[in-house]
Design goal:
heterotrimer; A alpha/beta (325); B mainly alpha (508); C mainly alpha (149); A: alpha/beta; D-Maltodextrin-Binding Protein, domain 2; 2 domains; 6-stranded mixed sheet; 5-stranded mixed sheet; 11 strands; 39% helix; globular; C: mainly alpha; 5 helices
């Protein structure tokens, strides 16, 4: 009996060494890579992820498959990336919300739990009204709102999201009180402003491209230091008369679980850089109005560190700071 | 609307065998994906997007549209055969479709579902082709109070899908609404009832709940009673319903198709709600409401015509406003964007070369669906003749896999199993599952729009009745709740009387 | 099912009381007082009313007649099948999806007393391979991998 057990043990041990990746010659990637997107299929983040890895086969030799793992403002999907097996075959798209989970007391998850790969884009917020609104400029709006505190309804795409915080931080600095109306995503927010259900909407500027071109919305300002190439007549926040030293950007990037072997990490970093430089991806981003902003892992880490410093006072001003100290 | 452009597009799509082939592939894979519990049309479209990269965008879109139509229809097959809706939109089809199967009429039920889906889908696609801009204008009038009123109206359907006891149906409904409050609250940025679990932050997801309510509960009951239940022999002749049978449900199909298209066109409400509303209205306005739920063709025709009508409807706000009508069109919108056609008010002007083939493709997809569905109905119906001891483990497996596949999460499998055990007991104590499902669909919509409206109105509840559309829905909702309550109560009393008379006769 | 209805009614009353109390912690100073605790509390009140009606209804003797009863032997069989399922979920991560699926199907069919080892073998192998290849090649969904596949 014992002899038999021993035999089985030897066979099983042999199988393990034979099939486990360490026992074989190292070739990475030897199979398709999975890219976890923490937001629903069809949304802005998902579209960018799919566009980015469209030609990944040319750069990795294997496909990069997008899978959506949604829920909890992205925490479920990003959490799954952080805890995935660190063999380099699972990477994830990480987004703005990662900077807020810990401060909002939602989940114990931050950029420190990831092996960072690259920053993809940083989008500025915009402040917009319906085309027939009485507010012609940002000054009109702010002055009216100052005189009538809490009257102007301002829609945003979710409490604690980048757009909410961007407008809230400006409002706090100017001593203006908006009546914030949270929506579930960008699409309902922009429909509500066009339909006249809210007075002002704050969304990413690229999300308004179609409505802007069709003349259905007026964009009062873009919360950035320079004008956007597809919205040449929209003034920056400083040009509109409200200079903003600490701008909150929505950001997206790529990360892997911590502990991926360094050589594999390098392959991922180089490969995704090539995906980023793919002319087709660049053209699509340009046409959609998505401001791309590459940063290498080190630069990305600095960016995220700064982001948390910028966000803390903004979250505090809207009463969402619940950091455990 | 430029008719010649539409006809030209028709010519191109219909008579190009390659285009036809893509629609065919889309519809067939849609039916398979739709029929497998847990794999929804939404997921199918998302999974096919990478395949469209290498294709000419129009061909890719034709395949995706075919998959959308086929997927919504395909859900009815598993709903009828095993009582598990393959997609959420087929949940209302279970109510009468599965009893028909138990009577041995699976083939006829699938035939009816196919014809009703084809009819509803065609009506929806035609309305989409000719009335998109007009309907888009109405959709813009929907603000938070209107969405709340619409969801309230939808919850009124709980009464018609309550089974034997309206009180127990309402309890199920409120229980379902309670479940929807678990998770992250997007309005305040606060996690609720999550007990510090990151997984629960996402709430109880819909698909695992659906599989638990209808799938596991069926499987558990099947295993418990496996040695007792007599085998069902499926009738394989007369798959295509007789002309008279179609005629008798024609009015219901027309009404359901129109309601379905409209509900689909409202952003945020999709095929699942359309099916429930169609079923509820068919039962409420029927002369014999007591027959619903016992296995009648009208109870299959109504939801199937409604949910496929909603496919065309849901495309309208996506194409014209850039706002998806439901989850599937949200993914389609992503697909259009990746191919660099951004949906929105300018799509019709700037890219007629994409818009008109979409219209033509959607209509063509309905015909392909009719052909594949009727052709395959006999085969599907014969599946039920496989021995239950082989079939039950396989269905068990499909439930596990289906609840896993949505987010490839073992957590979801666990949630689904727990809900399945609860649903198994609910079944014995007379609590129906459909109201929970309806509540899960409508719960977030009710709560968020209620609070959102009250924020806009500075806390004044009058906002719901001072706005015309919202007031109309609230009043129609109240009217429907009251009339269906009385009609169904009377129907149940009638049935009880008949049952007791029958019992007396048997005793005598 | 008078007794059952009363029991369930009491259970619902406890649930709604607990919920009403528990969501109090989510009360935030939000404008107009419709914070995250508002909707759950409305539901708790509704559930309490419905639960009470269920009890009253039962006491008045208006309960429905009990339909099918749970078959005790069958119930045990169901519990064992759930245990088999949990075992299967654990095995997928050790043996890999396809192998574990085959064992699960074969095991469950045997447990449900399907006759003929060839029928069981063939149908479980075929289903396992079919589902595995649909997921692996058509849907490209990552499946748990183990020692085998």
């Amino acid at each position: 009996m014992l002899k038999r057990m021993g035999l089985i043990f030897v066979i099983v041990a042999g199988l393990i060494t034979f099939t486990s990746p360490d026992g074989m010659a190292q070739k990475f990637p030897a199979k398709d890579i999975t890219l976890i997107v923490p937001w629903a299929a069809g949304g802005g983040t998902d579209t960018i992820a799919r566009a980015l890895v469209k030609n990944a086969k040319n750069y990795f030799g294997v496909n990069v498959n997008v899978v959506n793992k949604t829920g909890g403002m992205g925490a479920v999907g990003m959490g799954a990336v952080a805890t995935a097996v660190p063999d380099g075959y699972t990477v994830g798209l990480i987004t703005f919300q990662l900077s807020t989970y810990r401060m909002m007391g939602l989940a114990d998850l931050s950029y420190r739990d990831f092996g960072l790969i690259q920053l993809l884009n940083q989008s500025p917020a915009s402040i917009s009204v319906a085309a027939d609104s009485k507010f012609k400029t940002l000054k009109d709006l702010m002055e009216y709102a100052k005189k009538n505190p809490g009257v102007v309804t301002a829609g945003h795409s979710g409490a604690g999201g980048g757009w909410h915080l961007a407008l809230a931080s400006i409002a706090v600095r100017e001593g203006v009180k908006f009546n914030f109306v949270p929506f579930d995503g960008a699409a309902p927010t922009r429909t509500a402003v066009v339909g006249g259900h809210i007075a002002v909407a704050t969304t990413g500027i690229d999300e308004l491209l179609q409505l802007y071109r069709a003349g259905q919305v007026r964009i009062l300002a873009v919360n950035d230091t320079k004008r956007h190439w597809l919205f040449p007549d929209v003034p920056t926040i400083a040009e509109a008369g409200y200079p903003n030293p600490k701008i909150i950007y929505d950001w997206r990037g790529l990360g892997a679980p911590k502990g991926v072997p360094a050589d594999r990490m390098q392959i991922l970093i180089n490969g995704f850089k090539k995906c980023f430089d793919d002319p087709e991806f660049k053209k699509l981003a340009h046409d959609l109005g998505l401001p791309l902003a590459y940063r290498d892992p080190k630069g990305f880490e600095e960016f995220l560190k700064e982001m948390e410093e910028t966000l803390r006072p903004a979250l505090e001003s809207v009463g969402l700071l619940k950091e455990k100290k | 609307m430029q008719l010649e452009l539409l006809f030209e597009a028709f010519g191109k799509v219909m008579f190009d065998p390659i285009n036809f082939l893509f629609v065919f592939i889309g519809v067939t894979s849609g039916i398979i994906v739709g029929a497998l519990p847990g794999l929804t049309a939404t997921m199918g479209v998302a999974l096919l997007i990478p395949f469209t990269f290498g294709l000419d965008p129009v061909k890719g879109l034709l395949m995706l549209l075919g998959l959308f139509s086929g997927g919504i229809y395909g859900g009815s097959i598993s709903a009828i055969l095993i009582g598990i809706p393959g997609t959420p939109s087929a949940a209302a089809t279970v109510l009468d479709g599965h009893p028909l199967c138990k009577k041995g009429l699976a083939g006829k039920a699938i035939g009816m579902a196919t014809i009703a889906s084809f009819f509803g889908g065609t009506v929806g696609a035609l309305i989409m082709s000719f009335l998109s801009p007009q309907i888009a204008k109405i959709a813009l009038k929907f603000g938070p109070p209107e969405f709340f009123a619409l969801a309230f109206f939808g919850l009124g359907i709980i009464i018609t899908v309550s089974g034997k006891s309206i009180l127990k149906g309402l309890i199920s409904g409120v229980f379902g609404l309670m479940i929807t409050t678990i998770g992250f609250d997007p309005l305040s940025g606060c996690p609720r009832l999550t007990f510090n679990s990151t997984e629960l932050l996402g709430g109880v997801t819909f698909i695992p709940a659906l599989i638990g309510l209808f799938g596991y509960s069926q499987v558990f009951q099947g295993i418990e009673k496996i040695l007792i239940l007599p085998p069902v022999k499926s009738e394989l002749k007369n798959i295509i319903p007789k002309f008279k049978e179609i005629g008798s449900v024609f009015k219901t199909m027309v009404k359901s198709a129109l309601m379905g298209t409209f509900i689909g066109a409202v952003p945020g409400t999709g095929c699942d709600i359309a099916a429930f509303v169609s079923y509820g209205e068919a039962r409420r306005s029927s002369k014999n409401p007591e027959k619903f739920g016992t296995g009648i063709l009208e109870g299959v025709a109504a939801p199937e015509s409604g949910n496929n009508g909603a496919t065309g409807g849901a495309m309208i706000p996506m194409l014209t406003l850039g706002v998806p009508g439901d989850a599937v069109t949200a993914v389609l919108m992503g697909a259009l964007t990746i191919h660099n056609f951004q949906p929105g008010p300018l799509l019709f002007r700037d890219h007629p070369e994409v818009v008109y083939p979409i219209f033509a493709g959607m209509i063509l997809a309905q015909f392909v669906m009719l052909g594949v569905g009727l052709g395959g109905a006999r085969f599907f119906a014969s599946l039920i003749n496989i021995d239950r001891r082989v079939m039950t483990p396989i269905i068990f497996l499909l439930c596990v896999v289906g609840s896993y596949a949505m987010r490839f999460s073992f957590f979801d499998v666990g949630v689904s199993l727990i809900i399945g055990i609860i649903a198994y007991f609910m079944n014995y104590y007379g609590f129906p599952g459909s109201p929970i499902l309806l509540a899960l669909i409508l719960g977030p919509m009710v709560e968020q729009n209620l609070r959102r409206s009250l924020i806009i109105s500075h806390g004044d509840p009058l906002i719901f009745i001072t706005r015309p559309i919202s007031a109309a829905f609230i009043f129609i909702g109240i009217f429907i709740i009251i009339t269906s309550y009385y009609r169904i109560k009377r129907a149940m009393e009638k049935e009880e009387k008949m049952a007791s008379v029958a019992e007396k006769e048997r005793i005598d | 099912m008078k007794r059952e209805d009363i029991g369930i009614g009491v259970g619902l009353l406890i649930l709604s009381t607990w919920l009403f109390w528990y969501v109090g912690r989510y009360r935030v100073k939000e404008i107009y007082g419709y914070g995250p605790d508002f909707f759950p509390r409305v539901l708790a009140v509704m559930m309490a009313i419905l639960g009470l009606s269920l009890i009253v209804n039962a006491l008045l003797g208006n309960s429905l007649k009990m339909g099918d009863r749970i078959d005790p032997k069958g119930f045990v069989r169901m519990l064992i099948s759930i245990a088999i399922c949990i075992g299967y979920l654990i095995l997928t991560n050790i043996l890999g999806f396809a192998t574990a699926t085959f064992l699960f199907l074969f095991g469950l069919m045997t447990f449900l007393r399907q006759k003929g080892i060839l029928v069981r073998l063939f149908s479980s192998v075929a289903t396992a391979i079919l589902v595995w290849s649909i997921f692996r090649y058509f849907l490209v969904i990552p499946l748990p991998e183990g020692l085998l596949f």
